[in-house]
């Protein structure tokens, strides 16, 4: 009997049991102290651009923020290297396909290092252990009765590696060729009509369960606009998903187990990476970090992660991700970035020009979660000059003069005293500093780091106004004990603003924020989120002294 026939007989044998098979996750709950963040694995048909850098940094900030709260953290990264688009690109370049993939994969690996990503597990879908994991996952779906073979027809986009229905395509003129054709409405990519026999996944059986999952948590898909999009897709109905391609058309991928005439659909292959990096298949062992706590993706691939991926996990009896964060894209001059328009920013060149932490700060501060961010060299310089140098470093420098006589050794006690007795001249700044940690945390917990940092810089602006009004450079000239006491209070409020802002900036600009905390003598043991509250600093015993040179942390950029 042919392997394919045996396979179909097996599927048919199991089909009657599908209704009785549980699709509830069977693995035990993971340790709540473990926190798993995933980056999307990037397609290796081109070099990294600034949008990739944003995704990488956003995931890194989420991971570092979790670590600051005492979590044991893990992050995955990597490259998606299978599919027809890659096969054709390698053929056009007259290159061996694997070496073609390796060239671009290495650049994405370089991006992790250049972006100062904190210890990501990098995976390639061409890795042998991943291919084995994909084959195992496929067999689980077969064993549980969710894969069948049938004829599939539809509008297929090579670029998107996806089929579209009649309602998802439109006829229009291609502006690059002036020829009429059919295009996917969602992505704008050209499509062609394809009719073929392949394997299909019973996605339609999970429609109601997916709706229940999404409606059961307001933040399982964030932001709300993406959540509403996914719910609209599901409520409109879903068809079963084509999960293989004829090997005569697509050889570059994982073969369907038991049927060497078909290749597993690239998105099934790619999505399994999030389990592979944590040791899947686990057998009798417990996963270390799976399922992911946050999966960072671009809004263009939310359907694959918020519909296909959870449905596949349900079918395999595996737990679902806690949260899918689908961020917006980047434009330049309010136009979509495009190589043909010459408006694509190279992250490696940008890091070289502006410095890594300045670029990281700009991307997080200006980047969009719900709405697209606009990349501008001028705006990068503005953020550097006005925020990092003008507000943060300038405030620290104003307090660092040796002639002001800062008495850091008394700041721990002073911070406690000021929580009980606030001078009328300090009420506004005191309230802002006291409220900032909880307000920022409520935004950081949603991954709205840009908005949270905006609050921190609003407080720094008030702290700069406060020190100007209270003139410590005048107070220091007085021999009056009350004036000297007032001097220390004024300096405390300024340095407390710098301390809180620097701790909140640690996930975003880790190198510069740590150096600034060194300058203001904050012990390394006091740089966790628990220390980001008013009066919680300078608690470690021992002498404390401000270090000079704060102003050079963010030098002038041309």
Automatic annotation (TrEMBL):
<keyword id="KW-0547">Nucleotide-binding</keyword>
<keyword id="KW-0030">Aminoacyl-tRNA synthetase</keyword>
<dbReference type="InterPro" id="IPR009080">
    <property type="entry name" value="tRNAsynth_Ia_anticodon-bd"/>
</dbReference>
<keyword id="KW-0648">Protein biosynthesis</keyword>
<dbReference type="InterPro" id="IPR015413">
    <property type="entry name" value="Methionyl/Leucyl_tRNA_Synth"/>
</dbReference>
<feature type="domain" description="Methionyl/Leucyl tRNA synthetase">
    <location>
        <begin position="35"/>
        <end position="399"/>
    </location>
</feature>
<dbReference type="GO" id="GO:0004825">
    <property type="term" value="F:methionine-tRNA ligase activity"/>
</dbReference>
<dbReference type="Pfam" id="PF19303">
    <property type="entry name" value="Anticodon_3"/>
</dbReference>
<dbReference type="InterPro" id="IPR014758">
    <property type="entry name" value="Met-tRNA_synth"/>
</dbReference>
<dbReference type="InterPro" id="IPR023457">
    <property type="entry name" value="Met-tRNA_synth_2"/>
</dbReference>
<protein>
    <recommendedName>
        <fullName>Probable methionine--tRNA ligase, mitochondrial</fullName>
        <ecNumber>6.1.1.10</ecNumber>
    </recommendedName>
</protein>
<dbReference type="InterPro" id="IPR014729">
    <property type="entry name" value="Rossmann-like_a/b/a_fold"/>
</dbReference>
<dbReference type="GO" id="GO:0005739">
    <property type="term" value="C:mitochondrion"/>
</dbReference>
<dbReference type="GO" id="GO:0005524">
    <property type="term" value="F:ATP binding"/>
</dbReference>
<keyword id="KW-0436">Ligase</keyword>
<keyword id="KW-0067">ATP-binding</keyword>
<dbReference type="Pfam" id="PF09334">
    <property type="entry name" value="tRNA-synt_1g"/>
</dbReference>
<dbReference type="InterPro" id="IPR041872">
    <property type="entry name" value="Anticodon_Met"/>
</dbReference>
<dbReference type="GO" id="GO:0006431">
    <property type="term" value="P:methionyl-tRNA aminoacylation"/>
</dbReference>
<feature type="domain" description="Methionyl-tRNA synthetase anticodon-binding">
    <location>
        <begin position="433"/>
        <end position="531"/>
    </location>
</feature>
<dbReference type="InterPro" id="IPR033911">
    <property type="entry name" value="MetRS_core"/>
</dbReference>
<comment type="similarity">
    <text>Belongs to the class-I aminoacyl-tRNA synthetase family.</text>
</comment>
